[in-house]
């Protein structure tokens, strides 16, 4: 069987539901998010896309999503947490509602910080950062894994080696790889896979719980450009994400 790469944004979290900037804060799934994860597993089964390797971030909303997918598939799939797939750190915006941030920053700056490649929020306060570093999901990770703020370009920099050193070789060897991560870490991964322009990256929205499939093209890269959602209705879900101002 030929290899494949499937990208899956974790199911809805409690802070997704609340419309809050989450970043590296380790929050759980909602009951709706758990059902989204199970539905993702059912979609994978229906399309005969059964992973034999799962990579997640270290954050519980991604790990739990992966566990629920494995439960639905009825398989004990080898799963590894990789910190490079952690969500972008939103710095001083962390914990702020998106509505409050939009009102404080203005529409242009709000969208620049959220959607551009290089927009970087102000650093989070030192005490908040130190507390974050001691959280179970991040404890023991190096400084590169827990910065005080990040632009999407920083996430792209940490994601790119994982794509080239782990994901592409695994897919080329015939592995079926599932990556369960976050809105921004998966946007960064798509930027690397598809060589997205700044405009394309700003427009990319990845809905929760919707598997996105890539296949190898025989030339060492992945196709189709932009991937293929297993559920065609995912494009409507992506439009809803865009209406909220993006991931």
From TrEMBL:
The keyword Isomerase applies. NCBIfam families: pgm_1 (TIGR01258). Pathway: Carbohydrate degradation; glycolysis; pyruvate from D-glyceraldehyde 3-phosphate: step 3/5. The active site is at 10 (tele-phosphohistidine intermediate), 87 (proton donor/acceptor). Substrate binds at residues 9-16, 22-23, 61, 87-90, 98, 114-115, 183-184. The keyword Isomerase applies. Pfam families: His_Phos_1. The gene is gpmA. PANTHER family: PHOSPHOGLYCERATE MUTASE. GO terms for biological process: gluconeogenesis; glycolytic process. It comes from Curtobacterium pusillum. Belongs to the phosphoglycerate mutase family. BPG-dependent PGAM subfamily. One of its GO terms (molecular function) is phosphoglycerate mutase activity. Catalyzes the interconversion of 2-phosphoglycerate and 3-phosphoglycerate. This is 2,3-bisphosphoglycerate-dependent phosphoglycerate mutase. Gene3D superfamilies: Phosphoglycerate mutase-like (3.40.50.1240). Keywords: Gluconeogenesis, Glycolysis, Isomerase. It is an enzyme of class 5 (isomerase). Its EC number is 5.4.2.11. It catalyses: (2R)-2-phosphoglycerate = (2R)-3-phosphoglycerate. InterPro entries: His_Pase_superF_clade-1, His_PPase_superfam, PG/BPGM_mutase_AS, Phosphogly_mut1. The record marks 182 as: Transition state stabilizer.
